[in-house]
Amino acid sequence: MDPENEHTDGQKEKEREHTHTESVEKLNAALKMTKTITYLSLAIGIIAIGIALFAILRTPSHVVTPIATTTISNSTPANLTGPIVVNGSPIVPPLSRASAPVITSQGSFGSRLTNINAPFNATELAVINNAPDSYFEKAGEMFLNHSLTNEVGLPSVSTAPELIVNGKPAVLYVGSISCIYCGENRWAMALALSRFGNFTNLFKGYSSFGDGDLPTIYWSPDAYNTTANVTFGNFYQSKYLTFITMEYDSKIVQGFEVQPPSYFLSKANATGNNVYITAAEYFNKVVNPSSFGTPFTVWGKYPVMGADAVDFGNTMPTQANSTLGLEYMTHADVLNSLSSFNSEFAWTEYAGADIYISLACSSLNNTAPICSLPAIKGIEKALNLSG
Amino acid sequence: MPEKIGIASVIGDIFKSPYYVVLAVIVAFIYYYLIIYLVQVDNSGAFLITIPSYLIYALVFASSILLTVSVYSIRKAFNATKSGLGGGVLSAISTFFSALIFSCGCTAPLLNIVLGLFALNIGTIVSLRNFLASYQALIVSAIIVMDVVFIFYQLSKLTKTCALDKGKIVSLKVKLK
Known about the structure:
The complex is a heterodimer of chains A (387) and B (177). Chain A is α/β, with parallel strands linked by helices and 387 residues long.
């Protein structure tokens, strides 16, 4: 073998190794840089999500808490100077719907529609209309001394110009038959309204299958088979208040659905009824569309976003037990509970009613008899409501 | 030619290390309690969900594994760092987004605020919310599947990477240009 060639081959081999080593070192440096950047990017991404979460959660929520101190904001909605006065005949809905008949077949909890749209009989109506004042007083005391297990209350109270219908302050309800919170809170609303008047008819209903299938009240027979519609009107009468109801109907066997406030106005316009058109216009001005949810109510001069109680049974649902007691109750069970007044569920519903009664009383300058109950006065004081 | 490593080997390599096992467990706890917290904020303090609870556990499991594999990718592999970054962020986003649609969506949910950040009008927000509410379980299931698919994508990337030892390339097994 030629020694010169051997020497050359050896040199070349060394050069190749040197180049190889240099390349590996450069790659490792590049790798280190890339990893640093990648870790940084991952951290920034997750921090950004955390910041977004923090920003969202700082937005005032509608967390319902027992009220110790409450601030009132006299925030008049834009373009609304009031009171808004309208006179006329409110819509009277039909007592039955051929397209949404009463269902008599039994079903399993979570997917039942037994007696949907069936009217309350006289005994059942009496549970609501003739509830003893003592129940409202006792529940109000429990609320004020924080002895309720379930959450009842409002995060804050705001005011708005009143809607006056036929000379009486209006209680406005906007909701959805599919909605779980509307489902549990209509019992409290009905109890509250019963203190100022009475219902000649109420109907049995359910929230949607995708939203708990809770037994609830419908203000009138609802179109539970429709894709989308609004049912206006109810069977309430009172010398103190006018009850205006707008219920969004959708397929009850699906999940929760609702439409924006403008949809309710378009449907009200289609009815040609000036009371409901004015009420829908008022609703569109009072509500904050970006935070609209159901139920939305206005009790005289007090708009309330959401339910004022979290009442799905005798206990609050937790991560350890997310079962909703109310989902496994029938209408008869609920009415028995309300009439016997010996369960956390019943106390919560009456306490929720007391909140609404306090708002209405404040709007009526406490002229209704119920307003003289000590618990109601106590709640008005706790909420800092002006008479 | 790159060394042929199987997906099973990569999984074994990841989870035989106590570091990654602990990471997966910690991330799972964080995600689980994040979900609980967001659902409670959305429901006035109540843990109210309108989908089967096993979907929550499946989501937490899949997302925590995804984040763990992502961290492994970033630490161990040269050409899998991008997918590691993507997987990590996907893990966090999928958990956060799913938590917003676990419950009913009736009473002005956080979802409204999140969708509002994209400058959508209220009509679009409500339509989106209705869609999400109607197909909650299906959407969460799809998110879980997406997490699992991304896990396998990352694992497959890891099987084709350069051999590493303690985060450094020890030999060039691919041809340099």
